[in-house]
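Input (structure):
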């Protein structure tokens, strides 16, 4: 077997191709453009038998994806950042449609239908419409959607079991790396977690009992799995690659809510890094471990901290000085 090194975008495009998708509604936005460019090139060469439509916006793209899925097509699309925000109206509505589709979000950001009516036959046109509901009915169906989302936790485990039997690999709700006997756990999501694995190995070599917990799912939130993985730790360093203005790291808040109510919950330390694609170095992981361990020993959780070096700060100060001098002209 020939091995090929792929980018994340390339891997997403290849996965869509292997899934034999039928329809790709698209709108270009960096950094996901490589995905749709790759898929469109395969279609042009005859290597992928799928329909490809370039829409005028992410809102239209997501609408087309949902409509095609409701007609029975196997749909794939991708977006990123402001594209998701622009299409948020349809992202909010799609769960109520109960139609399956895949949309990849590349990091840069209500009606209930009877499934039997979601059919497509050329000889039998069907018109479907969304009912305008009052507050009581709306509340009921929105909560039904919430309960259906929670049920996805159980379905995910069933599907993981089937996948493991076929491919001898398992992708549970959370990934644990050298975490069983850890005193302190890194907690983070995304591709940077692989860098945390290297840091865990180096810290283990230095005699530090540390592990990694990586949630693979955010909604529905795997609270019970996280309680089992983290409930017996001394402390957890939650590393966010996001920042909710006025609150802090989003994952830190989610982890705190999941662990709330435990008899002896671990102390939580919050770190924010990797914003805008900034790297997180091995040295910063080492510093995170040291600061978290010291905070546990003192019995006081540290304030949230932005991962930022003195050199980076000096560069920012230079830019600010230039900006200030230009403003005075």
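Output (sequence):
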């Amino acid at each position: 077997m020939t091995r090929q090194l792929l980018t994340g975008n390339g891997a997403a495009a290849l996965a869509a191709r292997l899934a034999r998708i039928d329809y790709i509604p698209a709108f270009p936005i960096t950094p996901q453009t490589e995905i749709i460019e790759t898929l469109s090139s395969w279609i042009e060469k005859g290597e992928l038998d799928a329909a490809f439509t370039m829409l005028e916006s992410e809102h239209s793209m997501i609408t087309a994806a949902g409509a095609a899925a409701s007609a029975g097509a196997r749909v794939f699309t991708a977006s990123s950042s402001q594209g998701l925000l622009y299409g948020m109206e349809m992202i909010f509505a799609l769960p109520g449609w109960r139609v399956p589709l895949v949309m990849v979000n590349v990091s840069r950001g209500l009606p209930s239908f009877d499934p039997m009516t979601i059919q497509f036959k050329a000889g039998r046109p069907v018109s479907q419409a969304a009912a305008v509901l009052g507050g009581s009915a709306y509340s009921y169906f929105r909560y039904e959607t919430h309960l259906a989302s929670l049920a996805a936790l159980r379905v995910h485990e069933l599907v993981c079991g089937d996948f493991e039997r076929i491919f001898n690999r398992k992708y549970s709700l959370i990934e644990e790396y050298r975490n069983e006997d850890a005193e302190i756990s890194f907690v983070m999501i995304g591709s940077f977690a692989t860098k945390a694995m290297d840091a865990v190995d180096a810290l283990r070599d230095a005699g530090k009992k540390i592990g990694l917990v990586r949630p693979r799912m955010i909604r529905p939130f795997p609270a019970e799995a996280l309680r089992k993985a983290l409930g017996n730790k001394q402390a957890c360093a939650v590393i966010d690659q996001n920042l909710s203005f006025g609150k802090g790291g989003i994952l830190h808040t989610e982890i705190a809510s999941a662990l709330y109510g435990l008899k002896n919950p671990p102390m939580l330390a919050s770190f924010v890094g990797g914003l805008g694609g900034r790297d997180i170095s091995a040295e910063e992981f080492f510093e995170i471990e040291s600061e978290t361990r010291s905070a546990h020993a003192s019995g006081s959780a540290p304030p949230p901290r932005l991962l930022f070096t003195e050199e980076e700060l000096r560069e920012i100060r230079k830019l600010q000085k230039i900006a200030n001098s230009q403003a005075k002209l």
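Notes: The first strand starts at residue 23 and ends at 26. The two ends are 64 Å apart (CA to CA).
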